[in-house]
Design a protein that fits this description.
Radius of gyration: 17 Å
Structural class: alpha+beta
Number of helices: 5
Distance between the termini: 44 Å
Organism: Sphingomonas lenta
Oligomer: single chain
Protein name: UPF0301 protein CKY28_01705
Mean pLDDT: 91
CATH architecture: 3-Layer(aba) Sandwich
Number of domains: 1
Family: Belongs to the UPF0301 (AlgH) family.
């Protein structure tokens, strides 16, 4: 398999004028990408009025001393399904390593571990994901709309959601203030 052409462990950034309001200013952590398709978790927007403690309460898990944290809009697919992107210092029954950069877990065991203080050192929670079928992402990347950048973990853990898009663009040497949503005519 030619892994150089796949984006696992990188970020997809939506360019202005992408044409889909669900992905406006999106920052997607690419968790899997191969010839069969792609899966990513959005980290560029949070779900208003929903925090980590709210999720724990719904699952009847005591939060303990765990700080409350925002829950991100992971994408338009399975929006009631939760995912945790986290440091690689913890692993559960379904945890996958993402290109040696971060890990992804999607079962309640990671939430329990975080609440008990035995989970990963750093983590971000999202509901839903972005998914592409075989060849679909490659077709989208052939048109203007997405920019991929290397997967620096600071973008996940050290940058607030509202600043991730501009920070991701800056990693690629692009000043977000200079981007426009359409092309001009001469």
């Amino acid at each position: 398999m030619d892994t150089a052409r796949f984006l696992t462990g990188q970020f997809l950034l939506a360019m202005p004028g992408i044409g889909d309001p669900r992905f406006e200013r999106a920052v997607i952590a690419m968790c899997a990408h191969d010839e069969n398709g792609a899966v990513g978790v959005g980290l560029g927007a949070v779900v208003d009025g929903l925090g980590f403690h709210d999720l724990l309460e719904q699952l009847e898990i005591e939060p303990g001393d765990t700080p409350d944290a925002p829950v991100h809009f992971g994408g338009p697919v399975e929006t009631r399904r939760g995912f945790v992107l986290h440091t690689r210092d913890w692993s559960g029954q379904d945890t996958i390593d993402v290109a040696g950069r971060w890990a992804l877990s999607g079962t309640v065991d990671v939430l329990r571990a975080i609440a008990e203080g035995d989970g990963p050192r750093r983590w971000v929670i999202a509901l839903g994901y972005a998914g592409w079928g075989s060849g679909q992402l490659e077709a989208e990347l052939a048109r203007p709309g997405w920019l991929n950048v290397e997967g620096a973990t600071d973008l996940i853990y050290a940058t607030p959601a509202e600043r991730r898009w501009a920070a991701g663009l800056a990693m690629a040497g692009v000043d977000a203030r200079l981007l426009v949503g359409g092309a001009g005519t001469a």
